[in-house]
Design brief:
The protein is 37% helix and 22% strand. It is of the alpha+beta class. It folds into 2 domains: 240 residues, BirA Bifunctional Protein, domain 2 (2-Layer Sandwich), CATH 3.30.930.10; 91 residues, Rossmann fold, CATH 3.40.50.800. Strands 1-5-6-11-10-9-7-8 form an 8-stranded mixed sheet. It has a 5-stranded mixed sheet with strand order 13-12-14-15-16, sandwiched between helices. The structure holds histidyl-adenosine monophosphate.
C-alpha cells in the first residue's frame, strides 16, 4: 500500500459536506463584503516568497517545499496566498482598472512544519485581500469580515487579538531597542533567535521555544515606539472595531510570522481548540505591492485555516447529513429497465436520487436506502410493473402508498403521504 505523504491528508466523502458548507458560507460572506475570487497557481518562483514573506522567517528558512525544475529554476509550493495574489495583481495591472480591489482565494498551502493536531504540511486557507484603501476603517471592516465568516459557520469561543507593528520608521527604532534587550539575554535564546538577532530580532517575539517566550515577556513593546501617524491609525482601527461592536484584546507582543506587515496585525483565536489556537490571522502591509514591482498602494488581508475551522464543528450537526430525496428499488430483473428510466426521470425533475443497479433483494435495497439517508424509497416489483404503479415508502414513518406511475411527480411534490 502506498500511503499519504506525512502531514498531508485526504478530505474523505464523509467530511466533504462539512467542507463545502464551510467554503460556501465563506464565499457568501466574502461576497457581501465585496470580495471577488481570484485563483492563482499553487507554485510560484521561490524569489516571490523570499521577497514577499521575508528571507529571515521560519516559513522561508525552514518550511518551504522548494525544488529546482528541469530548467534549473527554483520553484516553491506556496506557503501562503498573499504573495501570489499580489504578484498576479501587479502582473495584470489590476489596480489600474480598479483602484480599490478586494480579492479572495480558497486553496491548498504547503508548509513543512512538524505535523500535530490542527497543523498540517498541506492545509487549506481561505485568504482575502483588500487593496487600495489605507483608512483604518477598512482594517476594522477586514477583521469584521473574518469574524463574520467564522460566526456564519457557527464557530464559538472566538477571541480577536490586535496589535500595531508600526511602519518601517518606527519599527527601525524599536528594532534597535529590542536588540539591545535581547543581547542582554543572549544565552537564554534559542539558536535561531541568536542567529537572527542582527538580521531580524522581531522574530524572537513569536518564537515558540520556551526560553525565548519567557525572555520576550519582559521585552520592550512595539506599541510604545509607534510614531504619531501609526498611533493615530491604530486608534482609528480600534474606534472602527468599537463602532462595529467587535470585542478585541490588545496583544502588544503579537508580530506574526511574516515580515510584510505594517501597522495593524491581528489573530483570531478559537479558545475551544485549545493549543491549536489561531484559526485565522492577518494584517496590513503598506510596502509589499511596491516591493513586488507594483504601485505604492497599501493593503490589508487575512487568512483562515479551513481544517482548524472544521475542528470546531460538531460531527453530528444535522446540517451536514447526507441528503437523498429518493431511493429507487428494483425488485427483480424485469423491473430493471423501468427503474433505470425512473431514476433518470426523477433526477431530471429536480430530485436527488440513488439506486443500486446490481441488487434485487428488498432487504438489501432498504439497507442501502437507510445508509444513504433517503427520505423515501420507491419500490418497483412485478405487481407494480403489471399495474403501471409504484410503491412509495416514507423512510421515517415507514408508511407506504401505491401511486400510479403517471402521478408520481404530483405525489412526490405534494405532501408525500
Ligand atoms: P498565517 O497566520 O500564517 O497567515 O496563516 C493563517 C491561518 O492559516 C492560521 O491562522 C491557521 O488557521 C492556518 N494555518 C497556518 N499554518 C497551518 C498549518 N501548518 N496547518 C493548518 N493550518 C495552518 C497567512 O498565511 C497570511 N498570508 C495571512 C494574510 C493574508 N495576511 C495578510 N493577508
Amino acid at each position: 500500500m502506498i500511503t499519504l505523504v506525512k502531514g498531508f491528508h485526504d478530505i474523505l466523502p464523509e467530511e466533504s459536506s462539512r467542507w463545502s458548507f464551510v467554503t460556501e458560507s465563506a464565499r457568501w460572506c466574502l461576497k457581501k463584503y465585496g470580495y471577488r475570487e481570484i485563483i492563482t497557481p499553487i507554485m510560484e518562483k521561490t524569489e516571490l516568497f523570499v521577497r514577499g514573506i521575508g528571507q529571515v522567517t521560519d516559513i522561508v528558512e525552514k518550511e518551504m517545499y522548494t525544488f529546482q525544475d528541469l530548467g534549473g529554476e527554483s520553484l516553491s509550493l506556496r506557503p501562503e496566498a498573499t504573495a501570489g495574489i499580489l504578484r498576479s495583481v501587479v502582473e495584470h495591472s489590476l489596480l489600474r482598472k480598479e483602484p480599490v480591489l478586494k480579492l479572495f482565494t480558497i486553496g491548498p498551502m504547503f508548509r513543512r512544519e512538524r505535523p500535530s493536531k490542527g497543523r498540517f504540511r498541506q492545509f487549506f486557507q481561505l485568504n482575502a485581500e483588500a487593496l487600495g484603501d489605507d483608512d483604518p476603517f477598512i482594517d476594522a471592516e477586514t477583521i469584521a469580515c473574518a469574524c463574520s465568516i467564522l460566526e456564519s459557520i457557527g464557530a464559538k469561543g472566538l477571541l480577536v487579538e490586535v496589535n500595531s507593528v508600526g511602519c518601517k520608521t518606527c519599527r527601525n527604532v524599536y528594532r534597535v531597542e529590542l536588540k539591545k534587550y535581547l543581547e542582554k539575554h543572549l544565552d537564554g535564546l534559542c539558536q535561531d533567535c541568536q542567529r537572527r538577532l542582527n538580521t531580524n530580532p522581531l522574530r524572537s517575539l513569536d518564537c515558540k521555544a520556551h526560553g525565548c517566550s519567557e525572555i520576550v515577556k519582559s521585552a520592550p513593546l512595539i506599541v510604545d515606539y509607534l510614531d504619531e501617524p501609526c498611533r493615530e491609525h491604530f486608534s482609528g482601527v480600534r474606534r472602527g472595531l468599537d463602532l462595529l461592536n467587535i470585542s478585541y484584546h490588545l496583544e502588544p507582543r503579537m508580530v506574526r510570522g511574516l515580515d510584510y506587515y505594517s501597522r495593524t496585525a491581528f489573530e483570531i483565536i478559537d479558545t475551544d481548540l485549545g493549543n491549536t489556537k489561531a484559526v485565522g490571522g492577518g494584517g496590513r502591509y503598506d510596502t509589499l505591492l511596491a516591493e513586488l514591482g507594483g504601485p505604492e498602494v497599501s493593503g490589508i488581508g487575512f487568512a483562515i485555516g479551513i481544517e482548524r475551522l472544521l475542528m470546531g464543528l460538531r460531527d453530528e450537526d444535522e446540517r451536514f447529513a447526507r441528503n437523498v430525496d429518493i431511493y429507487v428499488a428494483a425488485l427483480g430483473e424485469p423491473c430493471r429497465e423501468t427503474c433505470h428510466m425512473l431514476v433518470d426521470f426523477l433526477r431530471k425533475n429536480g430530485f436527488t436520487v440513488e439506486t443500486r443497479y446490481s441488487s434485487y433483494s428488498l432487504k438489501s435495497h432498504m439497507k442501502q436506502a437507510d445508509r444513504v439517508g433517503a427520505q423515501k424509497t420507491i419500490i418497483v416489483g412485478s405487481d407494480e410493473l403489471e399495474n403501471q404503479s409504484v410503491t412509495v415508502r416514507d423512510m421515517s414513518t415507514r408508511n407506504q402508498a401505491i401511486v400510479p406511475m403517471d402521478d408520481i411527480l404530483t405525489f412526490l411534490r405534494g405532501d408525500g403521504d
